[in-house]
Design goal:
Blueprint lengths: L9 E7 L2 E8 L7 E4 L22 E4 L20 H13 L4 E6 L1 H12 L4 E7 L10 H18 L9 H9 L12 H4 L3 E3 L7 E3 L15 H10 L4 E6 L8 H14 L4 E5 L5 H4 L1 H14 L12
Parallel strand pairs: 3-4, 3-5, 5-6, 6-9, 9-10
Antiparallel strand pairs: 1-2, 2-4, 7-8
Helix pairs in contact: 1-2, 2-6, 6-7
């Protein structure tokens, strides 16, 4: 069995025009890391149990997206977009001098990585999608987008007002039953640690640190045709891990067609089912790490050492 890092990581701050992107870097810093993108309103803590179990030959960087966890918020008056991760990935690549990037995304993070592949297919050398794949084109599109924009404006206008306080147990209950799943109580702290802070005005209570505007993304721009174009443009190996107790995010038939198309371009592309729910990478970390580790070895991901600019 491979050795593990036993949870050791280096907290990093990556400068961006609006502040910093924070993240956790596991493993040697002279090796180009695999970049991990979290899901909807989560943070890099989502990967706390998974990353220490991956092969020690590699290096792994999990970031907090803008407005999430410990990363800076986007400027007032702006709206969060599905392409936010793309801009972050490109900036990180330029700062560290990477010509290629290896991507892992969970849920919304997987959809964001899929978009990155569509925009920069020649810059991705492998992709792991955890319980999601393509961005979907929602019904009643204009109505939903209008609602998201209005809520984003509303939160902008109330920023700076006295925050509401919640007990820790209330915060824990909210995260435990998120995304239609149940997360074991003893694991919830991995998601809470970077997303809440104790209130300075209401002692004994807590408030969220993430930007509420992140709950209402601008979701425009991705159709079935665009998703298919991305699948056909992709050349890198793709691993999709599907939780058996989770539903498909987006259309199931489209999901299978896109995976088939990507498989035509790279024979290492595969779909793996793992028992568990939408947070399978957190709850069943050992099983997920085993599948990802084998995929990385099959892709010969650890054959190349890339020195980064720190």
């Amino acid at each position: 069995m491979a050795q593990v890092y036993v949870g050791t990581f280096r907290e990093v701050q990556i400068p961006v025009p609006f502040g910093v992107i924070r993240g956790k870097w596991y493993g040697p810093t002279n090796v180009r890391p695999i970049l991990f993108i979290h899901g909807y309103n989560d943070n890099s803590g989502s990967y706390d149990r998974l990353l220490p179990l991956l092969p020690t030959a590699g290096s792994y960087l999990a970031i907090d997206l803008p407005g999430h966890g410990l990363s800076s918020w986007m400027p007032s008056g702006t709206v969060y977009h599905l392409t936010d991760a793309t801009i972050c990935i490109r900036r990180i690549m330029k700062i560290y001098g990477w010509s290629k990037v290896s991507l892992v995304g969970h849920s919304l993070g997987a959809m964001m990585c899929y978009i990155f592949i569509g925009l920069y297919p020649d810059k991705v050398d492998l992709f792991v999608a955890l319980d999601a794949l393509q961005p979907s084109y929602p019904g009643e599109f204009y109505k939903q987008l209008a609602f998201h924009l209005e809520r984003s404006i509303e939160y902008d206008d109330t920023k700076g007002k006295k925050p509401s306080g919640f007990t820790y147990d209330k915060m824990l209950s909210r995260v435990r039953y998120s995304a239609g799943t149940t997360i074991p109580k003893e694991l919830c702290h991995h998601l809470l640690e970077r997303n809440i802070r104790e209130s300075s005005v209401l002692p004994g209570t807590f408030h969220y640190t993430f930007d509420s505007r992140t709950k209402y993304l601008d979701i425009s721009g991705w159709s079935r045709e665009t998703n298919l174009e991305t699948a056909r443009a992709n050349k890198c190996p793709v691993l999709v891990i599907k939780a058996t107790e989770s539903f498909y995010y987006g259309d199931e038939d489209e999901f299978k067609r896109l995976l088939d198309e990507m498989g035509k371009n790279n024979p290492l592309t595969r779909l793996e089912a793992i028992d568990g729910n939408h947070y399978v990478h957190l709850i069943e970390a050992e099983s997920v790490a085993s599948v990802i580790g084998k995929f990385l070895i099959d892709c010969k991901r650890f054959d190349e050492i890339v020195v980064g600019k720190l």
